[in-house]
Amino acid sequence: MRIYLPSSNRGVSLIELLIAFVIGAMIIAGIYKVFIAQSKAYTVQDQVVEVQQSIRSAMEILLRDIRKAGYDSNQTPSKLFTAIFPGDSTTNTVKSDAITVQYRDKDKDGNLHLYTKVIYRDPNDAKLKAMLYQDGPPAPGYDPLNPPVLLDNVSGLTFTYGVDGRIDFPETQDGAIDDFNNDGVIDANDYIPAATVNGANLNPIAVRVSLTANPSPTNADVKQMVQPRTLTSSITVRNLCLFKTN
After folding, report:
1. Which tens digits make up the pLDDT trace of 24-70?
2. Residue 209 and residue 161: Cα distance in Å, rounded?
3. How confident is the model over 185-222, as pLDDT tens digits?
4. pLDDT for 149
5. Which among 194, 175, 168 is positioned nearest to 238, based on CA atoms?
6. b (16+ CB within 10 A) / e for 135-156
7. H/E/C letters for each residue in 147-194?
């Protein structure tokens, strides 16, 4: 007696094979799309962190230099005043994106010097730069044609000033920022532009800095997805010998 078993050698048709390939391709494409999205999100987040850290570091340097304004080591008072760009001695244009801080301090050998620090946004390359002068000429290690860069891709830099009365009128000064707009509150609206400070001969005692930076332009996708970051800080200059000059 012979027993016949059902045949199990049925093959896969071409249509079934094509369907399997299509399904596999769709799965692979989905995985790849998720991978690309995650990779781009990581890159964007990394760029955001980099911009925030860079702008925070630059702001710390700005505030550190502004805090030095007026330190004179018991010598002739030093000063804080609106700035022209380094080397621009032909005009005396008041700029909202530049500041000069002047102070006296000792070098590593103990010699007392008058230092002038000019901080500005270079309109030619959108970089935040700082130039240091010592007793007039550039300080050792500083080149006016190639000053140190504090931050790249700077799209905005604004200095405004809190004032306390007028220069040479002590009766108008009480050691506190004036309520410039008379609304009963000392806030950002009481910080006024440099041109107004100079024009009215006002006495600046505080500085408000607003700094905006963009992500690196090398990655077009990241540049489109990451908005410019702005950091704003206010500082009251401690040194009582601070005064404004033209």
Report:
1. 889 988 888 888 777 777 766 777 777 788 889 999 998 988 888 77
2. 9
3. 888 899 988 878 877 888 888 889 999 988 776 666 55
4. 92
5. 175
6. eeebeeebeeeebeebbebbee
7. CCEEECCEEEEEEEEEEEEECCCHHHCCCCCCCCCCCCCCCHHHCEEH
Residue 235: which of 56, 68, 52 has the closest Cα? Answer: 68
**Residue in 169, 208, 203 with CA at minimum distance from that of residue 191:** 208
Contact assessment for residue 130 and residue 61, using Cβ atoms and an 8 Å cutoff: yes
Note the pLDDT of residue 205: 83
The answer to whether 123 and 88 are in contact (CB under 8 A) is no
Residue 37 lies in a domain: no
34 inside domain: no
Which backbone phi and psi does 36 adopt, to 5 degrees? Answer: -65, -45
**Full residue range of the structural domain in which residue 216 is found:** 48-236
**pLDDT tens-digit readout, 103-140:** 888 888 888 888 888 888 888 888 999 989 898 889 99
Per the CB < 8 A criterion, the answer to whether 127 and 121 are in contact is yes
11 located within any domain: no
> What whole-number distance in Å separates Cα of residue 202 and Cα of residue 167?
6
Unique residue bearing structure tokens 């304004």: 69
DSSP state, residue 135: S
Total domain count for the chain? 1
pTM for the whole thing?
0.73
CA angle 160, 164, 170 (to 5 degrees): 150
Residue 26 lies in a domain: no
The DSSP call for residue 83 is -
